[in-house]
From TrEMBL:
Its cofactor is pyridoxal 5'-phosphate. This is Glutamate or tyrosine decarboxylase. It comes from Amycolatopsis sacchari. PANTHER family: PTHR42735, SPHINGOSINE-1-PHOSPHATE LYASE 1. Pfam families: Pyridoxal_deC. The modification N6-(pyridoxal phosphate)lysine is found at residue 224.
Length: 468
């Protein structure tokens, strides 16, 4: 047994660190000692239990009702379901709203999370994408109101948006939706467990939950700012009638009548129990203190970035997320990301989209309090190194070639050729530095970029494939 764990530990050593605040996307670190051990023990106690049947495992029913109640306390009430993550919560919000509408559409600000495009794809709901304000990156309520029509089943706003960390004007959008009798989902996946505490700390955070009339559902991820292990989110609905559309029953086979609240059927008690234990252990006061540390960290980093020559913060972020853009063409943010990586920090490149230029995303958590100056030093050094290296140049002929490719007409072989040319060939390791690859991807129109990256994903998930 110990050999197996040693092997696993060795594999994990090749990953980005999940603690210490050096990975500024994907992971959330409270910095609290002992929390992982508690969560692991709780997970082990319940991972063999199956939430498929809450009458057979009443402990899981209790854990779920407790978690939903805590989320509802933070977000103004409602009933809910525990899901596997933010994407599943958003999917279910769309599914519940769709009902049997013949040609349903949903009105999304262009900054809405890609989970809504996934919902559109899965459930046949046409996304009506409304551009956001080009400077603040907030949803434009008048334009969203104008986009609602008789086939609209859902209107979405973010609290905050992942890409820029800004709060959409929820109250105005909800009023427009309510005036048309349309449901309104607030995607608070990333903000729902931290912004209510910011408000208690005196930050002027507008209401975005059920206190706002017209809001019919809210999502909040516990594996983000509730600092729970991965695999837990909550979808709240204002009332139980609104929730029914994502419940599912089937008695049309000879086995048990399948009864599901979410997309999963067999559902492990592990993530649920781990989340329950973490939420109880940290507690309301604990979350307030974590929010205080996070707020101090994000303020300090934001202020410090303004002093880094060549970098600026996009928009006026309201939360824990920062998007850093370059002020100058003399260096490349993709190179800055590589240089940060060499210094032990992961920041996430976000490609240009509408008025949003190429930028670097930082998810700031409580563990970053105390490391702010290290991050800022690493950023300043990385920008200096990127300046010295000069911007990545994509050969204009190559850029023109890429821009003109139609992903619909390319064969698997042609994609394989493109991937090798981009340094993402099927065999061997990833390039240590990604700036050249990213610059090529940035030259590709979104549909081509999607397809190239899907083909790349297909090369990764092959038996025997490994980077270690
Ligand atoms: C993270 C996030 C999601 C998706 O959550 P996953 O847990 O990654 O599936 C949806 N919306 C927002 C705003 C998010 O930040």
């Amino acid at each position: 047994m110990t050999d197996v764990l040693a092997e696993l530990r060795a594999l994990r050593a090749g990953d980005l660190p999940t603690h210490g605040g050096h990975t500024l996307a994907y992971v959330y670190d409270s910095g609290l000692a002992g929390l992982d051990e508690l969560a692991a023990s709780a997970h082990a106690l319940a991972s063999s239990a199956n939430a498929l049947d809450p009458t057979a495992f009443p402990s899981l029913l209790r854990l779920e009702n407790d978690l939903v109640a805590t989320a509802a306390d933070l977000l103004g009430g409602g009933v809910g379901s525990v899901t596997s993550g933010g994407t599943e919560s958003c999917l279910l919000a769309v599914l519940a709203a769709r009902g049997d509408a013949p040609e349903p559409n949903m009105v999304l600000p262009s900054t809405a999370h890609a989970a809504f495009h996934k919902a559109a794809h899965l459930f046949g709901v046409r996304p009506v994408v409304v551009p956001v304000d080009p400077v603040t990156f907030r949803a434009d309520p008048a334009a969203m109101a104008a986009a609602i029509d008789d086939s609209t089943v859902l209107v979405v706003a973010s609290a905050p948006s992942y890409a820029h960390g800004v709060l959409d004007p929820v109250a105005e959008i909800a009023a427009a939706a309510a005036a048309r009798g349309v449901r309104m989902h607030v995607d608070a996946c990333i903000g729902g467990w931290v912004l209510p505490y910011f408000r208690r700390l005196g930050v002027p955070v507008p209401e975005f939950g059920f206190a706002v009339e017209g809001v019919t559902s809210v999502s909040v991820d516990l594996h983000k700012y509730a600092y729970c292990p991965k695999g837990v989110s909550v979808l709240l609905h204002r009332d139980a009638d609104l929730r029914r559309g994502h419940y599912f029953a089937s008695a049309r086979w000879p086995g048990y009548t399948m009864l599901n609240t979410t997309l999963q059927s067999t559902r492990s008690g592990g993530p649920l129990a781990a989340a329950w234990a973490v939420v109880r252990q940290i507690g309301d006061e604990g979350y307030l203190r974590l929010a205080e540390r996070t707020l101090a960290a994000v303020r300090r980093i934001r202020e410090g970035v303004a002093a880094v020559d060549g970098l600026r913060v996009l928009g006026e972020p309201d939360s824990t997320l920062l998007a850093l853009a370059a002020d100058s063409e003399e260096f490349d943010l993709f190179t800055v990301a590589d240089e940060m990586r060499e210094r032990g920090w992961y920041v996430q490149p976000q490609f240009a989209h509408e008025s949003s230029p190429l930028n670097l995303h930082l998810t700031v958590t409580a563990a970053n309090h105390g490391t702010e100056n290290e991050i800022l030093t690493a950023l300043a050094e990385s920008v200096a190194a990127a300046r010295a290296a000069g911007p990545v140049r994509v050969d204009p002929d190559v850029a023109a070639f890429i821009a003109a490719l139609d992903p619909g007409t390319l064969t698997g072989e042609q994609f394989a050729g493109l991937l090798s040319a981009a340094g993402l060939g099927g065999s061997g390791a990833l390039p240590a530095r990604m700036a050249e690859v990213n610059a090529l991807l940035a030259a590709a129109p979104p549909a081509l970029r999607e397809r190239l990256l899907l083909e790349f994903l297909g090369t990764l998930y092959r038996p025997g494939k490994s980077f270690t």
